Amino acid sequence: MSQSKSLFRSTTMVSGITSISRILGFLRDMLIAQLFGAVPAIDAFYVAFRIPNFMRGLFAEGAFAQAFVPVLSEYRQQRSFEEVRQFISRMQGSLGLVLLLVVMLAVIFTPWLTRIFAPGFVHDPNRFHLATHMLRITFPYLMLISLTAFYGSVLNSYGMFGVPAFTPVLLNLVMIIAAVWMAPHFHEPVVALAVGVLIAGIMQFLFQLPFLKYRGLFVWPTLHWHDEGVRRVIKLLIPALFGVSVAQISLLVDTLFASFLPAGSITWLYYSDRLTYFPLGIFGVALATVVLPHLSRNHADKSAQEFSIVLDWALRCVLVIAIPAGIGLFMLAKPLFTTLFQYGRFNPYDVFMAGRSLRAYAFGLPAFMLVKVLASGFYSQQDIKTPVRVAVIALIANMLLNFILIWPLAHAGLALATSLSSSLNAGLLAWYLIRRKAFQLQKGWGVYLLRLFIASFVTWAVLTWLTPQLGVWIHWSWHQRVLYLLFLIFASMAAYFITLRVVGVRLRDFRVVTK
Fold it and tell me: According to DSSP H, which parts of 282-410 are helical?
């Protein structure tokens, strides 16, 4: 039985819960920056953390979720509850076995993984051996967090968005404890962070089990490779492993290139990516998470008009947030790093260098968000070939741009290459959807974009007028920095939303209700 649910309310709820995790994530990064700085050892940790994190995106939150959720939604619409439970059991067993094999092989061949993903470390024995050691500790996190994301996909499909959204809070809490209390007890303090990642994976895995049991969805894994649903997911998953995860592949390619740059480059890129991911994670990922099950049900019900309405609504929501957020990150890049990170061993030079890459990432923020939503449009219809084709084009463009931009712009050139290739990705995805009439833009886009442009221009003008020079920020105390940064954020937000209201954009325009 279907019931009316507000996409706006669901997205707001997920965004609100996710913001708790993002704030704790910032606190975590601030502590790590203060305690460790941007030194070779912390570069090694971020390589050891990024590789399993990248694999998690392939196996779970990226391609797997996009392949699994549409099939699960179809089962919910057309099969009995017991058949759904059986499908979840068989899918869990298949995924778990694959993950176990991947982790075992990765632990055995860890030095080769380090050579592949951070080749520049080969000429720095200390960084190479430290990264290899920590990678052996962090790689089992891949299996734990991938199964956690699998459970989260099940809960999301049944409308329990809050639990999966809250789960990442545990990672940030454990890593804060590891940085502050565990690190002093290790011979190499940075290794405590790797241990913290593993402990967090165990806690996140266990956290969602009671909620699955409450909904009657907790089942023991079984192996049945010939199950119809499992085979359909695998058929969708194999090409989707590459297609939907192109943004993460681009980030990993950036890490590869950055390993040849001066020490600190990987850390500057990492912190820039984290700041960019704040609005992306709070809103872009939350929106895609909420929209995918709705689009999948619309497709299963053969409701083309409802499908277009939901996707159109999602795109409008993306732009109303992403454009001013990108402007804010660009204008406040260095003040943000000064306020959040310039303490302890993270010095003004690190602020300057990290601010350069953040500005480059800010340029691509709207594209990063649009790709999340547009990819959901394809995968909800179980169309694999188109996003894979687009992803190949975007990744090739990213690598070419890396070669071109790394020479004049160093690490900032890598960030700019990612932004440009993601913009190409988003543009091609939208073009294919519209050209094939799988999606039709609703009325009023011209006026809507004009209103966004006016409000965004006012936001840029306010920040230009009120933001002091970097030298002023550096000499302020921490509480002066925080207070003035908050003032700038609230002033720019007020200017943006007041201007939107003046030009005719209302909150009720985003309250779309669908089944």
Answer: 286-300, 304-331, 333-341, 348-363, 365-379, 385-409
Give the tens place of pLDDT for each residue, 196-221: 989 998 998 999 899 988 888 888 88
Contact between residue 377 and residue 295 where contact means Cβ atoms under 8 Å apart: yes
Instruction: Quote helix, strand, coil % in the chain, to nearest 5.
Output: 85, 0, 15
Retrieve residue 10's tokens.
């669901």
Residue 375, CA atoms < 13 Å, CB-side half-sphere: 34
Q: Output the furthest CA–CA distance in the chain (Å, rounded).
A: 65
Structural tokens at position 165: 């959204």
pLDDT > 90: percent of the chain? 23
- CA distances, 327 to each of 331, 452, 485, 506 (Å): 6, 12, 15, 21
Average pLDDT, the chain: 82
List, for residues 469-511, the tens digit of each pLDDT value. 888 888 898 889 989 999 999 999 999 999 999 999 877 666 6
- 452-455 long-range contacts, Cβ below 8 Å, gap at least 24? 452/319, 452/320, 452/323, 452/500, 454/499, 454/503, 455/324, 455/496, 455/497, 455/499, 455/500, 455/503, 455/505
Q: What is the pLDDT of residues 346-358, one digit of tens each?
A: 788 888 999 999 9
DSSP symbol at 442:
P
Neighbours of 303 (CB within 10 A): 15
Q: What is the pLDDT of residue 247?
A: 59
Q: DSSP H helical segments within 62-161, as ranges?
A: 63-78, 81-108, 110-117, 125-138, 140-157
Q: Encoding tokens for residue 344?
A: 């302890």
The whole-angstrom separation of Cα 52 and Cα 494 is 40
Three-state DSSP at 80 gives coil
Q: How far is CA 282 from CA 2, 13, 174, in A?
A: 28, 10, 20
Residue 3, pLDDT > 50, answer no
- Do residues 439 and 309 touch, judged by C-beta distance below 8 A? no
